[in-house]
Amino acid sequence: MRNLVVITAGLSTPSSTRKLADALSAATESTIGARGEGVKTTVFELRELAGELAEAMTNWGAVTPHLDEAKRAISTADGLIAVTPAFQGSFSGLFKMFFDTLDTHALDGLPTLIGATGGSTRHALMLDYAMRPLFNYLHAVVVPTGIYQSTDSFGSEEGAQTARRIERAAAQLADLMVGPSDRVGGLSGIGSNDDSSPRRKTGLDLEEDFVPFEQLLGGHTGD
C-alpha cells in the first residue's frame, strides 16, 4: 500500500484548487492501481489549518494537533501532491506558511507533483520560477510536468490539453512512487514501502535527532 498526501491551499468552497488536486490524485491512484498497487490518499485543506499555522509561526511552543497530523503524514508518504492558487504571480501566503513550518528535512527525496490554479494563463510560469525552486530547496524530487489550470480554460482546447498533462504528470509521480516493474524491490530507495526504511523528519520528536551510541563510535578502534 502506497501513501499519497495531498496538500491544497484553496480558500473557497467549492474550490477550483481542490478540484485540480482531486483530479491529480485520482489520476495518480488510477495509474498506480493499474500496476497492481493500492493507494491510501490523505488530503489536507490548509484553510482548515490556518489558525494553527498562525500560532505555529508566532509561537513555536503552540499546541497544533491538526498541523502535527499533516507533518506526520508527510513523514511516511510515498508521494506528495501540492496545489495552490496563484496570488500576485506566485503561491499563496497560506501555502508558503505551511511549508515554512516543516522541518528542513521533511521532504527529503519525496516524489512531488506541483499544481496551481489562477484566473488566467498569464501566471502559469509561477510553477517554474516560484513553486519548483521552493521544493528543490526542500530536497523534494519534483516530477517534470507541473499543472497550471486557469478558469478560462474550461471547455476549451486548452482544457483538453490540461487533462492530457494531468495524465502525464500522474504517470511520472507513479513512476517514482512504485518504480518500474523490472526493478528489484529494495534497491531503488525512492518509493520503497519497506517499514524498516528511515522516515523523514517531522521536527516533532526529540528521538529524530538521536544518534545511536554504536553509530557515534563507528570506525573507532580505541587505538
Number of helices: 7
Strand content: 15-25%
**CATH fourth-tier homologous superfamily:** Flavodoxin domain
Number of strands: 7
Integer count of domains: 1
Helix proportion range: 25-40%
Shape: globular
> How would a textbook summarize the main sheet?
7 strands, mixed
Structural class: alpha/beta
* SSE run: EHEHHEEHEHEEHH
Briefly, what CATH class?
Alpha Beta
Distance between the termini: 48 Å
CATH fold title:
Rossmann fold
CATH architecture, by name, is: 3-Layer(aba) Sandwich
**Unreliable residue stretches:** 181-198
Radius of gyration of CA atoms, rounded to a whole number = 19 Å
Mean of the pLDDT scores? 86
Describe the 3D structure.
InterPro entries: CE1759_FMN_reduct (IPR023932), Flavoprotein-like_sf (IPR029039), FMN_Rdtase-like_dom (IPR005025), NAD(P)H-dep_FMN_reductase (IPR051814). Keywords: Flavoprotein, FMN, Oxidoreductase. Mean pLDDT is 86; it is low at 181-198. This protein has helices at residues 16-33, 50-58, 65-75, 93-100, 126-137, 157-178, 213-216, and strands spanning 2-8, 39-45, 79-87, 90-91, 111-118, 141-142, 147-150. The chain has one domain: Rossmann fold (3-Layer(aba) Sandwich), CATH 3.40.50.360. Strands 1, 2, 3, 4, 5, 6 and 7 form a seven-stranded mixed sheet that branches. The longest helix is centred in the C-terminal third of the chain and has 22 residues, at 157-178. It is an alpha/beta fold.
Question: Which descriptors apply to this entry?
Answer:
about 40% helix; alpha/beta; 7-stranded mixed beta sheet; about 220 residues; NAD(P)H-dep_FMN_reductase; Rossmann fold; FMN; single chain
